[in-house]
Specification:
This protein is an alpha/beta fold. It has 9 helices and 13 strands. The chain has one domain: Ribonuclease Z/Hydroxyacylglutathione hydrolase-like (Metallo-beta-lactamase, Chain A, 4-Layer Sandwich). Bound molecules: zinc ion.
């Protein structure tokens, strides 16, 4: 059996929010946007791609995130917790060996503090920027998520990183949205995915190579979009845009569910 055949990708049931603009048009029917995390089981370790929301805010997101959680109508309950979902596969939080943090925005890494013993992969420059962001980007970071007091072991990478050395899981260095933005290439048997992180937010932006208004460096973001496209083409990979509700329904429909 090849190592790839032992690899499994589990999209975890995410907390969600609704964009105020879409809510204004569609009301309660506005699409719910995932705040994602994925579990990858490999024979040599467990990997998370992103870590969802802060477990201390479960059931009451306003308590952890303030009025923004109300404004964007965050929904976050027990079944979205990493711990609850890992348990379904017989794992505990302590079993996670690696977390690839796509970047340090609060909607991606609220659960990071639960992994003091894991190797936490970040793109170079992310920690420095998160500690002192430009004003427009300030609201995307919640300092307590990456505070020193959690004793997290960060490993900043300035190039792609093949996590297990066998090509199955690769962190892709694609700066622009933030200085350290990462995506991940996951090569399953017969099918490969690129998990976008926030390198791209919508299909349209991907097709037309349009950077996002909240990107820190728009030139770098466009370069990263082009590189993302070349990886997708070379690998014949499927792009999973992590905040795209349609990608979630399409891909979770034919992947095994927890
Ligand atoms: Zn995001």
């Amino acid at each position: 059996m090849s190592s790839a055949s032992k690899l499994t990708l589990w999209p975890l049931t995410p907390a969600t929010y609704q964009s105020p603009a879409q809510f204004a048009v569609y009301g309660d029917d506005a699409p719910r946007v995932p705040m994602p995390a994925y579990l990858i089981e490999h024979q040599d370790g467990l990997v998370l791609f992103d870590a969802g929301l802060d477990p201390d805010a479960v059931g009451d997101p306003v308590s952890g995130y303030g009025e923004v959680a109300e404004r964007i109508r965050v929904r976050f309950d027990e079944r979205n917790l990493l711990e609850t979902q890992l348990r379904k596969r017989g794992h505990s939080l302590a079993d996670v060996t690696t977390v690839i943090a796509s970047h340090l925005h609060w909607d991606h890494i609220g659960g990071l503090k639960q992994f003091p013993n894991a190797r936490i992969i970040l793109g170079t420059g992310e920690q420095a920027y998160a500690g002192s962001p430009e004003r427009f980007a300030d609201a995307f970071y919640r300092p307590e998520d990456f505070s020193d007091e959690h004793g997290l072991r960060y490993d900043e990478i300035d190039d792609d990183l093949d996590i297990f050395g066998d090509g199955t899981v690769t962190a892709l260095r694609l700066p622009g949205h933030t200085p350290g933005s990462l995506a991940a290439l996951v090569r399953l048997e017969g099918r490969s995915f690129v998990l976008s992180g926030d390198v791209v937010h919508t299909r349209d932006a991907y097709e037309h190579e349009v950077h996002y208004h909240g990107d820190v460096d728009s030139m770098a973001a466009r370069r990263s979009l082009r590189r993302l496209r070349s990886v997708i083409e070379e690998e014949s990979a499927e792009l999973w845009i992590v905040h795209d509700p349609e990608d979630w329904s399409r891909f979770t429909a034919d992947l095994p569910q927890l």
